[in-house]
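Researcher: Please translate sequence to structure tokens.
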Amino acid sequence: MNRKRKKQSREPVDNFGKFVPNALIIFVITIFLYDIFFYTEHWPFSSHRMYSTLIGPTHVKNEVYMVTPEGEIPMDVNMHLKPIGRSRLTYLLKNTVRMRDKRAVDEVLASLAQIYERNRAEHDEEWPEMIGINVYRLQWELDPELRNLEYPRKTRMLGFQFQ
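Model: Translation complete:
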């Protein structure tokens, strides 16, 4: 008994069924690329864990200050240290503070100063002359009424003076 199988014809391609998943994938990739290019964050696409950890009784962060002939000024990371950005600078400073090699620490701080000088040269605005750079650890005891917002405990972690 030789049975011949009937060839089944292919079903027509469902274009809408392919369009929706592809459009969704392209949309997600576009959001990621937009965030990377413009240094922004959109919540479900960012790498932050938002509320996944509890905050203790203190809040600590490292902050970069430029030393000028008039004194110290906190640096605006988004403007003065562009294209690094706040999140990259946070990891950079955390790792730099852990270094024991003074020469490597000086190289990191000197490279931050070079970025500042390059951005200063590109802008028409009058930016202050930098003669050094310091990294401070700022620590706040959390107060529900924010009475100590302007007065954190400030500890100098790293410093570099130009010669």
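Researcher: Any highlights?
Model: Residues 58-161 form one domain.
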